[in-house]
């Protein structure tokens, strides 16, 4: 049988888009070994993409870190379908050719998109080339979803929850195009559940101590101050830091000393295992990292968030009592201590709320739907009965 070909289009502005794309590609390989061929492609970084697009994507982290007010303003002003249609026109002019080249070369049976910028260019290419190829979109935010995501071209949208569904309907997306799947995270969250004590041992952690997992990036500030606050927590703890490519933070932590055990990583491919071995996640409010924390059933302490899109993620987490937002180191230490009082009863309650929100199976659910879309034949239409 000829392999089914899935083109997964993504971007590298931030962490979530590519992570979601790779999670679905991995799920396809797990569910349909030797039957699929997946290509994860970022058209912005392709050779022939207009040069103006490349520095915009590469400078994304810097712009949101050093100009958050300007970012919030531009996000809010552009968040309407009317403005989004203007933006889509410009994006299509810049990206349609490289998108067409990728599609013609790879010849996919289905296209999955994980970035809001590509819906319209993909739709225009398929409209001219082969409108029979299904085009689906995964929306990678939990709440404040920008209108640019909801252009009319995709045949189906995979979304996080009912909050996103409301925004999609308000943006004119027909309800039959919407599937609440959760944001796709690594299939390992669903498939590789192991004994926590044994997992801690394999990672060099003490299973008798509370483990706080800090996930950083170039957009997370003051993480070291929060680590220092743990020295004043009465309960014995240990910490793991994944710097997320923040080389300065990584090098600083390698030379630091704390009164508790600290494990430091820079880039880490094995994030699901570290999460499943931990008791608390400390991070910023990105849609993908929160989805991973919820998939692992972790109470989440938010120490940073991006104005605009991530403000909704904060509200979503807090409204479901799956975590807390702290504004400073004092609040951080107080919350950790409060969660651990009375034998950790509050920590356990928050962990249960987190697990109820999580979708560890999301990538597998989406992968199966993609496979079904290109393999299941539609039911033949029955002719109407003859009169008489």
Per CATH, the architecture of the largest domain is: 3-Layer(aba) Sandwich
Assign a percent range to the helix content. Answer: 40-55%
Mean pLDDT across every amino acid position: 86
Radius of gyration, in Å, reads: 22 Å
- Amino- and carboxy-terminal Cα gap: 46 Å
Q: What's the number of domains?
A: 2
Work out the number of β strands.
12
Highest CATH level, the class of the largest domain: Alpha Beta
What is the name of the CATH topology of the largest domain? Rossmann fold
Helix/strand-derived category reads: alpha/beta
Q: In DSSP terms, counting alpha (H) and pi (I) runs of 4 or more, how many helices?
A: 16
- Supply the CATH superfamily name of the largest domain: Glycogen Phosphorylase B
Unreliable parts:
66-75
Largest sheet: 6 strands, parallel
Backbone shape: elongated
Relative strand content: 5-15%
Describe the structure.
- By secondary structure, the protein is an alpha/beta fold.
- It has two domains: 4-185 and 361-374, Rossmann fold (3-Layer(aba) Sandwich), CATH 3.40.50.2000; 192-357, Glycogen Phosphorylase B (Rossmann fold, 3-Layer(aba) Sandwich), CATH 3.40.50.2000.
- It is 47% helix and 15% strand.
- The chain is built from 16 helices and twelve strands.
- The strands form two sheets. A six-stranded parallel beta sheet has the order 2-1-3-4-5-6, sandwiched between helices.
- Helix 3 crosses helix 4 (68-78).
- The model is unreliable at 66-75 (pLDDT under 50).
